[in-house]
Design goal:
This protein is about 45% helix and about 15% strand. It has about 625 residues and is of the alpha/beta class. It folds into 3 domains: about 20-275, Rossmann fold (3-Layer(aba) Sandwich); about 285-380, Immunoglobulin-like; about 385-600, no CATH class. The protein has a 7-stranded mixed sheet, with helices on both faces. Strand 2 (about 50-55), helix 2 and strand 3 (about 85-90) form a beta-alpha-beta unit. Helix 16 packs across helix 20. The relative contact order is 0.06.
Length: about 625
Amino acid sequence: MRTAVALRRQHWWLTLIAACLVLAACHRSAPVNGEDPGWVERSDTRHKIAVVFVHGIFGSTRGTWTDAHGESFFRLLKNDATLGPQVDTYAFGFSSNIMTGGSPDIREAANKLQSYLQPSGVLDYPAIVFVGHSMGGLVIMRYLANNLDKAPALAEKVPLIVLFSAPMEGAQVAQLAGLVASNPALSNLRPVDSNDMLKQLSDDWASLAAKPRVGCAYETADVGGVRIVQWGSATRVCDGRPVAIDNADHISLVKPDRATHPAYMFLSGQLTEHVLPLQMSAQLELPDFQRDENSYIFTLGAPEENVRLMNTGRAHMKYWIGKKSSRSLLVSPGASPQLINGNSTELLTVTLRVDADENAYEFTLKSDLPSEQTVRVLVPDLSRLRTGHQRNAIKVTTGLAQYLGDPANAEKIAALQHDPDQLNAQLAAVAHAALGEPIKRLPSAEQWLLTADLLAAANLRSIASAALAQSAGIDAFYLQAEKELRDKLLAQGRAELLIRSDAMDWSHALPHAGHPDTPLPAAQEDQAPSMPAIPVWLDTVAYRESSLQLVRNMEKVASLRQDAASLEVATLKMSAEAATAKLQQVERQENATQMQIFQSPAAEAERQRRSEIERETRSRAQRIERPQLR
């Protein structure tokens, strides 16, 4: 009995001495790690893969990875014919005092790691691989568990972590070493059964939606007769078979002295197999387009369609539209460069305006990749395109008619009676909302341009002008289309004035409005405005019914009656004589209404009140001036 107790005491003391030896061995390597994190090898042009090394407890930023003769993982990677041209190396470190305070625990070290990666430019790399020794592996896991689910872009950039004897279930020797060294990090390395920090890390790691591959290597020799990290602890979360490093204890495990050292062979093999095959650069793909010898082809079956633009590489890229063949074609985003992250998808919106009358269009898709892509947009069935525009026009006229006819809006409309600009802005917003789904993926200014385009085609000129006013700040690519639409609205306004004044011989006017698919040259607009008329493609029974219902509801609003008359003229394609009679009739009615208002008792009382105020004002002024005259 006494012999057994003595043997247990002897074993306990030997283990404690071993722990002291471990501390002493680590202490010889780095009494205090005061070396800041930083790049060890970094190409001027920046390679595709950043390899980040994180040392363990009582290790040092670079010394942990370097043998007594100066050989290191860093030098071996740089000189590797395959990996050298692909890899830049970064060494991360934290304070590592043995017998004194000031050393961070795993959580604190992970937070420090996070604070260094972005400013150092590590997170700008297409691929990032973390390599951890001992507690450094737990620091890496804690950092990733904190961030991967919150930052999908980071998860895509980290395909692999490599762990050398990371004590995922803790280490018994840490509990004993805690008796001779006061260091908060040691408590983080106690066996998992009595270690809440490791339990939490295990749960957080398991719950990650997307985890990198974990490659593991472990020690095969003891330090002072003690295996610092047991096999089960070093291999708990590994993918694939863990690798034993021959004749290596916990410290020499990560000090390779040659390119054929087992530790270096393991790391280089993991990089070669699981990282190099990945597409590191940006890679542009257009899955919704067909490909011919010289260009991509997209067949458009509706006025607006969204198509996918994919970056299947790991690096981000910028893209923009270089040029396009017609002002009738809108491709959004336009000329302003847009960013698409690696392994991400964005949408291009391809749109044809109401005056589009060709079966083929073309634009150039440019990016910061070496090549540009020519895209041909085919419209094999123009009638189908017209049907889509008709459907949108009916949505707009129906939406406006319902808004004006809804009793719930009567008070608001009445309040805007004497402010036509505000009333038309409100109606433009109704038209914009009525279009809804077809334009919602466009930038706001382009949405308003298309809304105004459709309103102008329907001869809702005042509302179209209010909508066009909302397109300020539109992409420079579409300024010409905006100017063309503004000129069209001005021409409609001039035509209406000429009709009212009966000052135009319309028998010589160009029949442009009846056939608006061919834009009128700007030089001819001043000499020959066209009769207001809806375009041929919009001249359907369904549209005329919705438009005339809108006319009836607009007529109920005094300030909209002239616009209602113009819309009726265009919808029914009235002759010049009938149009003149209609517009002049409404103008006479408007003048009569204004005269009645002017001659009403209320108006007379208001004039008398103003007159009395003026007389009183003059009288006061005279009383003030008299003393000065004396």
